[in-house]
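chain below, 475 aa
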Amino acid sequence: MQIARKIIFYVFLLVYLFLCPMIILYSFGYIFQPVDQEIEQTGIIYLSTTPSGAYIYLEKKECDYKTPTSIIDLLPGSYDVGIRLLGYRTWKHQVAVCEGRAVVFENILLIPKDLMPEAISSEKDLSTLIELPADNSFIIKEGNEIDDFYIYDITDNKVQPLVQKNILKHNFSVNNIYTLNKNNQVILQGNTLSSKKYYYFNLSSQPQVLTDITQLISVAPNTIMYSASEENTFYAVYQNYVNRFNIKSMSQDERYIDKIKGIGLLDDEFIVLDKDNSISTRSLNNEQKEILFKNKNLGKNLFKNSNFYEISRLDNQLFLFSGDKGDLIVTVAPYQICDKGVLGVEYYKKTERLLYWTKDTIGMVDFEKDDQNSMLFKDEFEINELYKNGKNITQAFWVYNATHALFADSNSVSLLELSPDSNHHVENISEVRNNSRIIYNDQQGYLYYLNDDGDLMKLEIISKDKLVFAPFQKK
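prediction:
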C-alpha cells in the first residue's frame, strides 16, 4: 500500500513539475512543439470591423468567433485571413504573425456589395462641384454663365441659384470663385461682353446684393485672405506682395506687405516668409511682432524650389509651407515632405496626421508631439507613401478618424484603408463624371459627386450615428 501511495505521489509530482511550467509558459504565449521538441512563443491577431459580427476565416477555415475578437496562440508565420458578412464585400489580408506580438486591425470598414447612391438633382447637366470653406454647402456648376451656378445646402438638402435671378442686368461669364475662410463671403471674377469684372457678395444676405469691386482688383490674385476681426477688409495675395482693400470705403493699399516669399493669415496676425528666408509674425497693421526663425543657411536650403509659399498653421508651432512648384515643408525635422508635385493636403488634428497627394501618389505624415520644445523647427516626423499607383489623383479626404482616405483618381473614387503592416487596402467606391470634382462631408459621412449623365449624387460612406457602412436602399 505504501509503495502504491509512493508511486501515485511521484506520478503527481512529475505531472505537476511538467504541467505547471507548461501552464505558466502558455499564459505567457509559449507553446510546446512535440514534433520539433521545442518551445515557441506565439502571436495574436486582433480584428474589429464596422459593422461588427462578421465571420472570420483563418487559412480558409471558419473560426468559432466573430468580430471583434482576438485569434490567439498563433505560431510565427504568414496567415491568410478573411472576413465575411452577408451583404458586404469580403475582406482579405495576408497577415504576418511574429512571436510575442499582436497584429491589430481595429478599423476595418466592410463595404456593401451594392452601393446605392441617391440622386439629388437630375434636371441639369452639371459639369463639376466647387468646395466652400463652410461645411454646410458647396457650389454646383452647369456652365460658365452666372445663371449656371447653384448652391447646394447639405443641411436642408436643397439646390438653389448661387445668385438671384436677374440680379445682374448684363451677361457675366464666371472665370474664378474666391471663397473666404469659413464664412459666407464670395468674390466672383469673370467677364462681361466688354470688360473684366469682380463682384463681391454674401451668401447669407437677404436681399442679395452684388457689389462691383473691379476698381479694387486690377489683376487676378493668387488667393484672397480675410480676418474675422476686420469687417469689409480683404487681402489680395500676389507673388511677392499683398494688397489690402476695403469694400465699404472702396479704398486700397497697394503693396501693403511687400518683398515677401510667402504669407499666411492666421487668426489676427500674419506669418510672413521674407526674401531672406526669415519667418516672422506681423500684426494686421503690418507691424512686426516676433521673429520666429532666422537661419539663413537652413532657410536658403529649405525654400529654394518655389517662388512663393502659402503658409498655414496645423497646430500650435507646427506650420505648413506649400510652394507654387508643389514642394511641401513643415517646421519639424526633416522639414521637407516633398520637393515637387504636391497638389493638396488635409490635416487631421486629433491624430496629428497630414494627408498629401501628387498626381500618382498619396502620402501621410505622422507628427510626434513634443510640448516641451518651444522652438519653431524641431523634432522629427515620419513619411509614409500609402498609395503609388494613381493615374491622375486630384483630391483626397480623411475618413473615419484618419484611418482611411477617400480619393478621386481620373473618373473613379476609391477608399484606401490604412493597415498596420503597410499593406493597405484599396476598394473602388464609385465612378464619377470625367474632369469633375467631388465633395466629402466628414460631419455627415456623405460623398457628393456627378455621374456620367451630370446628375448630382449623394452616397453615404460612414453613418453619422453609428460610424458604419450601411447597405443603401433606393428611395
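The radius of gyration is 29 Å. Residues 13-37, 466-475 have pLDDT under 50 and may be disordered.
thats it, cya
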